[in-house]
Amino acid sequence: MNPNLSILQAYPFERLRQLFSTVTPNPAYRPISLGIGEPRHATPELIKTAYCNAIQGIGDSSGGLASYPATAGTPALRQSMQRWLHKRYGLELDEKTQILPVNGSREALFALAQTVVHPAKPSTKTPTEAPLVVCPNPFYQIYEGAALLAGALPYFVPSDPSRNFAQDWDSVPDSVWSRTQLLYVCSPGNPTGAVMPLSEWQKLFELSDRFGFVIASDECYSEIYFRDEPPLGGLQAAAALGRTDFKNLLILTSLSKRSNVPGMRSGFVAGDAKIVQQFLLYRTYHGSAMSPVVQTASIAAWDDEIHVEDNRAQYRAKFAQVTPMFSGVLDVALPDAGFYLWAGVQGSDTDFARDLYAAYNVTVLPGSFLARDFNGFNPGAGRIRMALVAETAECVEAAQRIVEFVQLRK
């Protein structure tokens, strides 16, 4: 067996299952989960229609299910992704060399590390010599697992709770950057919902130029936002700074949150053509081509913005109703983007989640499960993540129970 499998940490939801294993929730309340960030708004009819038609071979030049798909996807799919990048960010990319379909951003985030990281020889891979993959903290757990299974070590950049959990890049010494081969960033962030400004991007680009590492920008929450201006994307930031070759930069995005189709597993990567070429080579051997049916449905999704605007309006209305309910009860504010509330609680976050589940049958995720200790401090400790993915009425009911729970707990 790959020995690196033994050093993987339990996934947050497995840790949550263990936390709740001895708890019997109050049967007086129906269960409501705010724990998992799984979109639950209705899948748009235009996507379902395109999917069903593709299965039957109606209007589908890719052959439905009767042919092997190309790893690079069809020209029509890549062109739809190119059109979306132009509409959303004003970018002009070559769909043949700079865009590659993937089976959702999660698998691509993992696979990219296997492509980019050059592991040290086993005889020299000590904690001071192994290659590094730098991650935000709190973070999406795939970053850590991808680093470890690529033969690298994760390095968690401390964040500042007083600055909306912005990463303290200046605290990272040159000795770390010099061993860094891949940097994961997430903007809008999970779990904080924070969006990186242009100045932060400029800092990271300068570090990448100096030390030669690749930047992977996880942007799967980019289309759910609460400000007037949409979140700045990594490629957009690069273009604004005159970096039109997108050197050492890839963005990864997905239809899951944007179009409420997590079960389709559809997204794409875009950016540096040299990295895209090598990533395509890896994926060809890995056998990760997207189903022709999913490709056809994805074209329908990327080409339509009406359902995206409707989805965003639903989240805006929901957050506008739920967020004020926690005023004076939890330390929480409307995020820049995403569908999470990242709330501060009194005392232990794990105790809060366990006791809330027992008393009110509401599931939230302890913030410490989404972070790692850094110099003896876990930046997620004392916070909870609430995924407001259900319909508004269910989220409001969950918020009412949480408010009552906190008030009785004081």
Give a quick summary of the entry.
With 410 residues, the chain is of the alpha/beta class. It has helices at 12-19, 45-55, 75-89, 105-116, 142-149, 174-177, 198-211, 234-240, 255-259, 273-286, 292-302, 306-322, 349-360, 392-409; strands at 32-33, 99-102, 132-135, 153-156, 159-160, 166-167, 180-186, 214-218, 249-254, 267-271, 340-344, 362-363, 365-366, 383-387.
Instruction: Give the H and E element order.
Output: HEHHEHEHEEEHEHEHEHEHHHEHEEEH
Number of strands: 14
- Give the uncertain stretches in residue-range form: none
- In percent, how much strand structure appears in the residues? 5-15%
The description of the largest β-sheet is: 7 strands, mixed
Output the strand order for the largest sheet. Answer: 2-10-9-8-7-3-4
**How many helical stretches?**
14
What is the multimeric organization of the chains shown? Answer: single chain
Question: How does the helix and strand content classify structurally?
Answer: alpha/beta
Percent of residues in helices: 25-40%
What gross morphology would you assign?
A: globular
Cα separation of the termini: 50 Å
The radius of gyration computed from the alpha-carbon positions, rounded to a whole number of angstroms, is 21 Å
| Overall average residue pLDDT | 94
